[in-house]
Predict the structure of Phosphomannomutase.
Amino acid sequence: MVSSEFADRPLKKLVLFDVDGTLSLARQAASPEMIQLLKNLRKKVVIGFVGGSDLVKISEQLSVHGCNAVEDFDFAFAENGLTAYKLGKSLPSQTFIKFLGEEKYKPLVNFILHYVADLDIPIKRGTFVEFRNGMINVSPLGRNATIAERNEFEAYDKIHGIRAAFVKVLQEKFADYGLTFAIGGKISFDVFPHGWDKTYALKHVEQEGFEEIHFFGDKTYEGGNDYEIFTDPRTIGHSVSNPEETAKLLKEMFQI
Ligand code: M1P
């Protein structure tokens, strides 16, 4: 039985979305058309997003065109659900540093910063390690790069495999840390405890009694940060290449 909080929705289904590449272009705002489509969808089903980024960044992308990312989605999951809201109210959360402890974190971050310092790549900017609530995000380019610099790094990385090589070294060196290294976006990778991938968000919804939980994502291939939730037996996964494809599928599936 789905909770009475969602009694106004004719379909007892939950539809979850990745953000970058699924609802909007990476690190960019969702279009007015996408926001309107989500409003229409919410009249029929329960909706939520599951992003890898922190809530501030996701809000920059989804709190646009009159939408509020926390209030206009029934479930708002940032950092894979480590920061979680249901109907605008926050749910209990965990932290990366509590899981790992300072004494294990310090050698990890020191090693990462040394590795970045020794990397010979065309350009570097700043913020190579972003410390978040539920994970750290590591970028060889640096997070405060421009959109053009991000795209250039992505193209360079496709040829030179900078992130893949970095991840391999970390997986070997810190094999006993219980950490997952996931390449989700264009310039960085996320580091979080095993199981704190996007399936973490499902812990918050599995007792709600939905008849179906759909998930839409673009990084659904093995190694991508949508892979685990896309292949999870609790979800019906939909792989998309861009927001336009998400919109097309939603219109077909839900007649909106
Ligand atoms: O949502 C996908 C990823 O988006 C960003 O990645 P990048 O800056 O590399 O494009 C990051 O916020 C990352 O944490 C997230 O997984």
Summary: The chain has a mean pLDDT of 96. The domain at 96-193 is CATH 3.30.1240.20 (Hypothetical Protein, Haloacid Dehalogenase-like Hydrolase; Chain: A; domain 2). The chain is about 35% helix and 20% strand.
